[in-house]
Specification:
The complex is a heterotrimer of chains A (206), B (280) and C (207).
Chain A: H1 5-22, H2 27-62, H3 69-77, H4 90-121, H5 128-142, H6 160-199
Chain B: H1 2-8, H2 12-28, H3 39-49, E1 56-62, H4 68-84, E2 88-93, H5 98-111, E3 120-125, H6 130-138, H7 140-143, E4 170-175, H8 184-195, E5 199-203, H9 208-216, E6 222-225, H10 226-236, H11 242-279
Parallel strand pairs in B: 1-2, 1-4, 2-3, 4-5, 5-6
Helix pairs in contact in B: 1-11, 2-11, 3-10, 4-5, 4-10, 6-8, 10-11
Chain C: H1 5-23, H2 27-64, H3 70-90, H4 95-114, H5 116-126, H6 133-148, H7 151-156, H8 160-169, H9 171-195
The chains are: A mainly alpha (206), B alpha/beta (280), C mainly alpha (207).
Chain lengths: 206, 280, 207
């Protein structure tokens, strides 16, 4: 068993968090949870201040880069939201942030999430896999036609089209579930490994 | 029938403890089950293998606590591989937690006799998510004026000649997905689409399925998914490490989960049969 | 004017500028767009701080009014203050800072996330049922992917990893592409709505 103070703290914190699932919500868990939020928030503040210092204040004061006054001004305006009378001023900064994100996202998404995806589906129909990808994509899309009732066009025998699409979507959901289970188990394995190896000294895995 | 009824009403806490125990056993006494290497991991390996000595590679640690179990081993193997290829490594992060994990992973480079500032550098966190990536992809110096240790960029030898994303031979994001500031979608949009720079990804298993369309459309050059890919990468490097060691625990836990799924379904079938009988 | 018109005008002009910059080569337009993009890391680093200040506001309110669990909020403040003081005075590489981060924050975050595995295990026998064709398909896909991605799958059959990889590469990829394209269309329309001022969620509140 470990004799390190640090390891003991981390082990007790891990056990405190496990107590939520294995026992029930309790004061020790609540305390650990709030410590987590406190340190996380503190870290975000420290990182934010560091960026402001290294990319804003220092170049402004040391290199006289006065053009940085503009982003600094917009950044400071964000704090106006804490004043009842001037809260509306923070909207100027929010508009700038949101508009830049929307503009950049829009131009990139057209290519990455739309055009390139569609062109990658134009596959030669010379293998079962290619046929399945084309069929899965096209039929899957018909399932998401919300602007009109697809049954108006895909009725009778054609109603099988969105149904095939739904099968592909179900397989995709299944794959997501399988991977999610693996991902969450990895996290749990990481904690158990810490307990049995670093704390209890029962494992020699490296 | 009674057994199935009992299983249905089992206290979930028993399942939780069972999972914990089942995970702990192979961690204490590994089974050493063999595992084959799949094509996506080989492709990722080949992407790194094709780098020329002195190639500039940026790695973004876009993950925090929780995802470290899956992505730390990928980071470690990737760093070892890059050192073998003689690449220069630029670490960064789009989330505030990232640089802390980058610092942890970069320790492996010290043991490989790599010099900070000439072989690798940790540039720390850049704010802004998509806008942030777009900003440094265009004008590197305006965003990364210092490294994470606050050394001015001008004093770091390997920062010379880096003007934009185009000066990198490969950019890799180790990504935890939604919740992060720079999701895989954002990296594809701003690095591959806007700058046409080769982009590769190491993502958590949860993110794996939804990242596949980017791989098939060749918008990303390589993709590693979760602990399994991390273990495969270790196998390709002939250096079995912590990811390989944890795969036995994955096997044990998934066996229990699959048994539970089967039992749950048997119970459901029995229920259905019983209801049908009573309604008659 | 300042409250609504100017923010809407900024949203429209900046949004259009970012889009046009991609398609049009006009030096003055491209330079302006690049300058605004260059501001973003600095502006948003202020947002990182304001985001956490909201948390401070909520918890200080809890302490002031002695709401149930106020002492937890006090503990939150204590950890936050210690982290900020050490981080700003000694840096994030200071041993005490690393202790707080590595020995408290990481174990908490990782365990919290890892506990979801408990709920997945519990759900697997309570809710993961083959009740109809769709759910059967979902269940088979999930089971094959699970089995194929762990070494025990290979122990059962040598083909298992290839089957799991095929599911990931072919039917899953086709399905996920549908989600990606559809969510992409949704995202694009949302961006357009923001730029033209139809979606004003970012301007709400703060009256």
């Amino acid at each position: 068993m470990s004799t390190s103070f640090d390891t003991w703290v981390a082990a007790l914190i891990t056990l405190a968090m496990f107590s939520l699932a294995i026992y029930k919500e309790n004061p020790v868990y609540r305390l650990a949870e709030h410590a987590f939020i406190g340190i996380g928030a503190g870290h975000a503040i420290v990182t934010g201040v560091q960026v402001i210092q290294t990319s804003g204040i220092n170049p402004l004061l040391k290199n006289a880069e006065y053009r940085l006054l503009i982003p600094m001004f917009f950044g400071i305006l964000l704090f106006a939201r804490y004043s009842k009378s001037y809260a509306y001023l923070s909207r100027l900064s929010m508009s700038l942030i949101v508009a830049t994100g929307a503009g950049l996202g829009l131009r990139g998404a057209v290519q990455a999430q739309f055009l390139n995806q569609i062109s990658a589906t134009f596959l030669p129909l010379n293998s079962i896999n290619n046929i399945l990808i084309v069929v899965g994509f096209v039929t899957g899309l018909t399932y998401f036609i919300f602007s009109t009732r697809y049954t108006r066009y895909l009725n009778g025998k054609l109603s099988v089209v969105p149904r095939i699409g739904r099968c592909f979507l179900m397989i995709a959901f299944g794959a997501s579930f399988g991977n999610a289970s693996m991902g969450f188990l990895s996290m749990l394995i990481g904690r158990v490994l810490f307990l049995v190896r670093d704390w209890l000294g029962l494992s020699s895995l490296r | 029938m009674e057994v199935l009824e009992r299983i249905k009403s089992i206290n979930p806490r028993i399942i939780y403890v069972l999972i914990l125990v089942v995970i702990a056993i192979p961690l204490i006494k590994p089974f050493g089950l063999p595992m084959m290497v799949m094509q996506p991991s080989k492709d990722f390996y080949d992407v790194v293998e094709s780098l020329k000595p002195g190639a500039r590679v940026m790695i973004s640690w876009d993950y925090g606590a929780g995802s470290d179990v899956e992505l730390d081993p990928i980071a470690k193997s990737l760093l070892i591989h890059l050192v073998k290829k003689g690449a220069k490594i630029y670490a960064t992060s789009s989330i505030p937690d990232g640089p802390m994990f980058a610092e942890r992973s970069l320790k492996v480079l010290e043991s490989l006799n790599q010099q900070y500032g000439s072989d690798y550098v940790n540039l720390g966190f850049f704010a802004g998510g998509e806008s942030g990536i777009a900003a440094w992809a265009e004008n590197f110096e305006s965003v990364f004026r210092t490294d994470w240790r606050k050394t001015p960029a001008a004093q770091i030898p390997m920062m010379e000649g880096i003007k934009s994303a185009k000066d990198f031979d490969l950019i890799v994001t180790l990504n935890t997905g939604p919740g992060g500031y720079g999701t895989p979608d954002v990296w594809v949009r701003q690095i591959y689409v806007a700058k046409n720079v080769p982009l590769a990804m190491g993502v958590t298993a949860i993110m794996g399925p939804q990242t596949m369309p980017y791989l098939q459309s060749h918008q990303i050059a390589g993709l590693l998914v979760g602990l399994r890919s991390a273990a495969e990468y270790e196998a390709l490097l002939r250096a079995p490490g912590i990811a390989t060691a944890q795969m036995d625990a994955q096997s044990a836990a998934h066996t229990v989960i699959l048994i539970l799924i089967i039992l749950g379904n048997l119970g459901h079938l029995a229920d259905k049969k019983h209801r049908r009988k009573t309604s008659k | 004017m300042l409250k609504r018109t100017l923010p809407l005008a900024i949203t429209f002009i900046v949004g259009i500028l970012m889009v046009l910059d991609y398609f049009v080569k006009i030096p003055s337009l491209n330079t302006s767009a690049a300058s605004i993009r260059g501001w973003m890391p600095l502006v948003t680093s202020f947002a990182v701080i304001t985001g956490t200040l909201n948390l401070v506001a909520v918890h200080s309110d809890r302490i002031r009014h002695r709401r149930p669990g106020w002492y937890n909020s006090a503990a939150l403040f204590l950890f936050l203050a210690v982290t900020v003081i050490i981080g700003l005075s000694k840096g994030t590489t200071a041993p005490l800072y690393r202790f707080l981060y590595d020995k408290i924050l990481i174990p908490c975050g990782s365990t919290m996330a890892g506990m979801t595995a408990f709920f997945i295990a519990s759900a697997s026998y309570r809710a993961f049922r083959a009740t109809n064709a769709d759910s059967t398909l979902l269940l088979i896909s999930a089971a094959l992917v699970m089995l194929g991605r762990v070494p025990i799958g290979e122990f059962v059959s040598n083909e298992m990893p290839s089957v799991a990889q095929w599911i990931m590469d072919v039917p899953n990829m086709a399905g996920q592409r549908v989600f990606l394209v559809c969510s992409g269309i949704g995202f694009m329309s949302q961006c357009l709505r923001i730029i033209v001022g139809l979606n004003r969620a970012h301007l709400s509140g703060n009256e």
